[in-house]
Amino acid sequence: METVTTERTFKNLINNKWEESSSNETLKSMNPSNKHEVVGYVQKSDKQDLDMAVEAAVQARKSWRKIGKVERSQYLYKAANILEGRLDEIAETMAREMGKTLPESKGETARGVAILRYYASEGMRKDGDMIPSTDKDALLYTKRVPVGVVGIITPWNFPVAIPIWKIAPALIYGNTVVFKPATEAAVTAAKVVECLAEAGLPAGVLNFVTGSGSVVGQNLIDHSKIQAITFTGSDTIGKVVARSASERGIKFQLEMGGKNPVIVTKDADLNVAVEAVISGAFRSTGQKCTATSRVIVEEGIYNQFVEKLIQETEEIKVGNALGEDVWMGPCAHEQQFNTVKEYLEIGREEGATLLAGGEVLTDGEYSNGFFVTPTIFGDVDADMRIAKEEIFGPVIALFKATDLEDAITQANDTECGLSASIFTTNIGSFLEFVDEIEAGLVRINAESAGVELQAPFGGMKATSTGSREQGEAAKEFYTEIKTVFVKG
Ligand SMILES: NC(=O)C1=CN([C@@H]2O[C@H](COP(=O)(O)OP(=O)(O)OC[C@H]3O[C@@H](n4cnc5c(N)ncnc54)[C@H](OP(=O)(O)O)[C@@H]3O)[C@@H](O)[C@H]2O)C=CC1
Ligand SMILES: O=C(O)CCC(=O)C(=O)O
Known about the structure:
Elements: E1 3-4, E2 9-10, E3 12-14, E4 17-19, E5 26-31, E6 34-43, H1 47-66, H2 69-85, H3 87-98, H4 102-121, E7 130-131, E8 138-146, E9 149-153, H5 161-172, E10 176-180, H6 186-198, E11 206-208, H7 213-222, E12 228-232, H8 235-248, E13 251-255, E14 260-264, H9 270-282, E15 292-298, H10 299-314, H11 334-350, E16 353-356, E17 375-378, H12 385-388, E18 395-401, H13 404-411, E19 416-417, E20 419-423, H14 427-436, E21 441-444, E22 460-461, H15 475-478, E23 479-487
Parallel strand pairs: 1-6, 2-6, 9-10, 9-12, 10-11, 12-13, 14-15, 14-20, 15-18, 17-18, 20-21
Antiparallel strand pairs: 3-4, 5-6, 7-8, 8-23, 16-17, 19-22
Helix pairs in contact: 2-4, 2-6, 3-4, 3-6, 4-5, 9-10
The structure holds NADPH dihydro-nicotinamide-adenine-dinucleotide phosphate and 2-oxoglutaric acid.
2-oxoglutaric acid is lined by residues 157-158, 162, 232, 288-290, 449-451.
């Protein structure tokens, strides 16, 4: 039986009006901890709705650019305060809608507030540089200008932080936005947009359109009036974005998969390493692009490390994301649940040794949700699919290494290059790792996940398109540089 906990139907935001879709249809968002519970409804939009949103963003471009960065920052400060005031409510919605535990959901929402404040303060920072000219009587300088209308497509795994780390820099640098969230987390995203709208943004500056990726998302990336697209999600759709954007010669930024390694050397503090591997691999049910998925351990301490890892993994409490003392929630939605179940099977069939977990939980309350136990596979071979493919679930693949060089070679044996950690007390090992590892986020004695909003974020190799999000680095994507030469 379906339980409806909220009557709310969320609308699109187009030109500062909350609009129903032209199809008059809605999509319902379900709770992965209890698949009978509806969290809310969002609009099932089509091309017509998207065209209106893009047109509104086009019309708002000039005036938004002209009011200047300092004034734009005030809207972000206000939105931060509003989001902070709704922190508990929005975190609870997130936990209900995509199964992140309540403490983690609160942490992410607080991070959203901090990101808004960070980019608000960017309003007081410089817009360009003075450069000496070869002509002593001339003035030569650069001026950063907005790109124009930015299309933003986000995934379901960070439904507050990722939208905000794209929307806030887009707006502060003077762009207008059309935002399409992941359908599986669109109610949470709608609440974030409410906070921004309530801050009083002028009409057309931020537009929000929900609906399927294949209709709203595809039309957004193909739209002739968009000047830039930023996307976080799967490799498959990332490639579609890249093709469409490069054909039209517009800017694009992609953040996609990870297969992040952690190396544990023979001199590591094993307690620290075990705790960090568990947190990196299983928090958010392993559904982070920065999650730990391969753990490479030096032979001398392998047995000791694995024994402790198994023991602590077996103590993890899995349950409803809103449950007290629950450490790990469900997979975020049915399709993701099916993917994880499939990989648990693949691991067994490929001949890896199941050391912990590997179960689908179906008893009692568990039967209402998408629950699996945190899983560790040993004896994993580099050619196995569980060693190569992103699972996006709570699954660790363990490998043995003869020495540091072997461990780094194994760590780099992947197409992805987002995040990588090493646990060591040897300064030489850490310096070697920093030099040799092929990853955009390099972490020493710290878990592979965890991003600081004021620092550049992004991957090497097939994970990203080279550009970086967050921190100051975001301005490279959200602005163009004009080089100005002035002769008196
Ligand atoms: N790097 C990361 O952080 C993430 C990686 N992933 C990886 O991707 C896998 C699949 O997850 P999934 O949610 O299906 O990821 P997708 O790449 O399908 O979805 C990400 C976003 O793209 C949208 N989208 C879907 N199809 C199109 C399209 N043709 N054109 C434009 N936009 C589109 C989605 O909309 P809609 O929701 O409406 O389909 C969503 O907003 C995961 O198992 C995981 O491996 C997933 C999420 C985040
Ligand atoms: O580790 C984090 O905090 C960010 C991860 C992320 O960006 C993602 O999973 O998409």
